[in-house]
Amino acid sequence: MFRKFIASQFKKPTGLFGIFTSNIMIKGNMSNYNKLIKNLDVQPHDKLLEIGYGPGIGINMITQACASCTIHGIDFSRLMYKRASKYNKLYIDKGKVQLQYGDFLETPIVSNDYDKIFCVNVVYFWDELKKPCEKILSLLKKGGAFYIYMANKDTLIEKKAPDGVFNKYSLEQMVEALTLAGFAEVEHYFDKGYYIKAKK
Prior knowledge:
Layout: H1 2-11, H2 15-40, E1 47-51, H3 57-65, E2 70-75, H4 78-87, H5 89-93, E3 97-101, E4 114-120, H6 130-139, E5 140-150, H7 153-158, H8 171-181, E6 185-190, E7 194-199
Parallel strand pairs: 1-2, 1-4, 2-3, 4-5
Antiparallel strand pairs: 5-7, 6-7
Helix pairs in contact: 6-8
């Protein structure tokens, strides 16, 4: 029961324990963000969207590296919305970052012409893949791409990530869902987890 509670905090941090959990996220996801951001190949004036921005470290890293980029984000944890807004206040005030609080699958997104959309350790919390993949495709410009980092299914099983919180998708399931949604090209590589690029 306690393991499931801990897992639920990684899905949607709340309260004092959520602050502790989000601090773990910052440390645990830093390497994943560094690798994924290199793959993003961010160009001047790119418009990006992060799904599940958590404490906002990925958005902050990209904005520091690309002053002309615009980055939007959506997260359904009110605590993460508050933490990420505080962490990125400078860029929000400058109009470079815009954060939303809400469920990605249910909330209207700020725009529908993104060059790049990305997420880190988020896909496990989607109960099915068809709807999110189709929505992401609809938000991208022609030639735009969706970038994912996800842990290996076997790793989640080995770490006993609880069912009912974590959906343990395989690489094959993810690639199939992206292809069926209409993405033209899907590339991937493994480095302690899967880094996936799906191009519209």
